[in-house]
Amino acid sequence: MKMKLLNAVVLIAAGLLIAGCASAPKAEKYSDLPEAGKLQPDPRFPHSQVFIKEGVVFKQYSKFMIDPVEIFRGSGAKWSGVDEDTKQEIARFLRAEFVRVLQSYGIVDKPGPGVLRLKFTLVDMQLTKPLLAAAAHLSPAGFALNLGKGATGSKGSFMGSVIYAGDLRDSVSGDLCAAFLTTQTPNAMDFTAMVTPADAARKAITDSAEKFKLTVDRAHGIAPPAGGNR
């Protein structure tokens, strides 16, 4: 009986995979975000729109002040099937991960010289469908498809994602140094990100926080430049 159920799920997943490959998802605009008008695509930051103030020197910032994460309530967000408790939990997780990775630089709770203030907004998220995700990855066709998606950084079949925005400001002057809006998803072949519906969002946040830390390290000259030898 269990094998029949699994086979049925695999067939359904395969059919949906074929249908899902027919067209790319449309990009959504979140015009209610404060800095939305400044954001532009940048080839250095895939799946993101960014603003970086001309001439800003990030090396001058050696400590970070990280505000509580806000939850976006404006137009554009769908929050399909995401309840309020999950939104709040992921918002707390988002801040906690950036605190964790930046701890070595120092996390402060007051503005000051050399302090960069980070403000994040959880904009939207898509939940993983664990049973369908597992079935899609276990079928031969689905495995091959998701292997390719993993190589190109595309979202895995039936795996979730998270959209969040960030403002980076000088904590004393309040000047905007940078801003971004990004869609993040874990590697399509990361099976640990499809156990529960919110696992993909958590894993994507962890991955992006660690990449952010690497960017900070590079700004301070303690990591190889992007594209360099590691």
Can you describe what's shown?
There is one protein chain. Residues 1-28 have low confidence and may be disordered. Helix 1 (2-20) crosses helix 3 (130-138), helix 2 runs parallel beside helix 5 and helix 3 packs across helix 4. It is globular, with a radius of gyration of 19 Å. The chain has one domain (35-219): Double Stranded RNA Binding Domain. Strands 1, 2, 3, 4, 5, 6 and 7 form a 7-stranded mixed beta sheet that branches. The protein has 230 residues and is an alpha/beta fold. It has 5 helices and 7 strands; from the N terminus they run H-E-E-E-E-H-E-H-H-E-E-H.
Q: What is the terminal separation in angstroms? A: 50 Å
What's the count of strands? 7
Cα radius of gyration in angstroms: 19 Å
N-to-C order of helices and strands: HEEEEHEHHEEH
CATH architecture: 2-Layer Sandwich
How many domains, as an integer?
A: 1
- Which structural class do you get from the secondary structure elements? alpha/beta
What's the main sheet like? Answer: 7 strands, mixed
Strand residue percentage: 15-25%
What form results from the Cα inertia axes?
globular
**The top level CATH class name:** Alpha Beta
Number of H/I helices: 5
